[in-house]
Amino acid sequence: MNFKLFFLCLMVSLIDCNAQSIPLYTGTYTDGDSQGIYQATFNTETGKLGHFKLAAKTQNPSYIAYSPNKKFIYAVGEGGEGTVSSFKVKENGTLEFLNTVSSNGGAPCHISINPAGDKAVVSNYVGGNVSLYEIKDDGTLNPAYQVFEYNTTKKTSHAHSAQFFKSNLFVSDLGMDALYIYILNNDGKTYDLVSSSSVSIQEKAGPRHFVITKDGNFIYNINEYASTITASKKEINGFLLIDHYSTLAKDYKGANSCADIHLSKNENYLYGSNRGENTIVVFKRNTLDGTLTQIQNIDVEGEWPRNFTIDPSGKFLLVANQKSNNISVFKINSENGTLSYLSSVKTPSPVCLMF
């Protein structure tokens, strides 16, 4: 046997294996066994998930977000009066704490970063408002420079998610059954409200999260209370309703609360999570008119799928099952978008997954 050739092949194999392994960060609730944000490794060829370790000890990081260059991670602190924290990603994958600022409202539940990496937006569920932050070059956060308030004397706001898209900022408000659309001002910093009714949401539907197609022509809201997805198409003066689609199997009769929503990498399929039915619903998407056709509801092999994500390769979907303390891994069929279960890994109170 040529041992030099053997060891060379072995080294190449190990390098390839390491190249296929990427970090996965998990946000959690810390009222049980969890201590904060965890890091694991995920193999984008085999779908294997493992090597969990505590990356940062912090309270209730229920939603986390990367900076565009992946040098920093930002986390809400969903406890007490609400906080937002910044961390630097170290070479070993652990996180170095940088600073914390107020979220300006109770129970912050979502954070996202703009493509330039210099702004963050945080949604406060109990506070019913949304806060905007400047991010400095060193990754730290300045105190909020703009706060949008939504509570009225007649209705209680529950801001649940927000996203930057080109010069717009979109905010989904579960309590007000509204999707707010803002436009960036000439100062490049502040935003003005354009509309709170551009998307037709059913009353008491509870819009939670949403996705926008890459071209900005279609938007899909997942509604927590109604267990539906609202599909809308962009028009000159807003968005035109396409339809409301149930996320549940026809024979399911129990209680349910929808949570998260994502498009496949090629945008041909749409996925949503059902807490109660404990499934991921899969829709085939007509890319021309935006309509949806339900093709699968698959058991998440756990309980209460609050959040899920699709890996960068687009070949796998991972689900954070909050109440059963596990992350389930599914293979995505590249030909028809359906899911097949691969494996499950135990981890305390996972509620947000991020590649």
UniProtKB/TrEMBL annotation:
<comment type="similarity">
    <text>Belongs to the cycloisomerase 2 family.</text>
</comment>
<feature type="signal peptide">
    <location>
        <begin position="1"/>
        <end position="19"/>
    </location>
</feature>
<dbReference type="GO" id="GO:0016787">
    <property type="term" value="F:hydrolase activity"/>
</dbReference>
<dbReference type="InterPro" id="IPR050282">
    <property type="entry name" value="Cycloisomerase_2"/>
</dbReference>
<dbReference type="InterPro" id="IPR019405">
    <property type="entry name" value="Lactonase_7-beta_prop"/>
</dbReference>
<keyword id="KW-0313">Glucose metabolism</keyword>
<keyword id="KW-0119">Carbohydrate metabolism</keyword>
<keyword id="KW-0732">Signal</keyword>
<protein>
    <submittedName>
        <fullName>Lactonase family protein</fullName>
        <ecNumber>3.1.1.-</ecNumber>
    </submittedName>
</protein>
<dbReference type="InterPro" id="IPR011048">
    <property type="entry name" value="Haem_d1_sf"/>
</dbReference>
<dbReference type="Pfam" id="PF10282">
    <property type="entry name" value="Lactonase"/>
</dbReference>
<keyword id="KW-0378">Hydrolase</keyword>
<dbReference type="InterPro" id="IPR015943">
    <property type="entry name" value="WD40/YVTN_repeat-like_dom_sf"/>
</dbReference>
